[in-house]
């Protein structure tokens, strides 16, 4: 799924690794956390496959990236001398951009439907690029996600009803919070599906525990 996320972001604009990482966290941080360790191997693999290309672009002065580069160069110059500082400052950063093959691959990934598109690992990433996804694919993913969460909800209800007093208070509360989370997500998915069908306006955002009066710390809509 990191491949889909990277291709989707580069479809919007060329970026270097630092920008990609920030955008991944800004767009998908609620659902997934990506590290340098997973990002750069993915970029190298996409580059070898011809899906992205690399250019060089020195960060502009006055930007956060430029300040970071200048600070790094100054730090190195203290041990390498002024010549090393000039050399490092002039060196541009690697900028990645989508190739024609990459655009085709992105469209191919967007069109994929099936359990892998609506499971906990992938649903948030697909949702982030729904504006570029065909409406029929969006509907199949939303309906598949709803079925999955409904099954999880019924499983939690069954567990709570069977367990009764056999589990302690804290374990019962853990199951109860999970049940409430799945119920909220089902309601949210119902709203999204109705909006896709033109029945209602789309919801402004997924429901969160903070939206509920008096609610304490609760899981995110995907039950994590």
Automatic annotation (TrEMBL):
Keywords assigned: Coiled coil, DNA-binding
InterPro entries documented for this protein: Metal_resp_DNA-bind_regulator, Tscrpt_reg_PadR_N, WH-like_DNA-bd_sf, WH_DNA-bd_sf
Parts forming coiled coils: 139-166
Transcription regulator PadR N-terminal domain segment(s): 6-60
Region feature Disordered, mapped onto this chain: 55-88, 193-224
Listed Low complexity bias regions: 68-86
GO molecular function: DNA binding
Name of this protein: DNA-binding PadR family transcriptional regulator
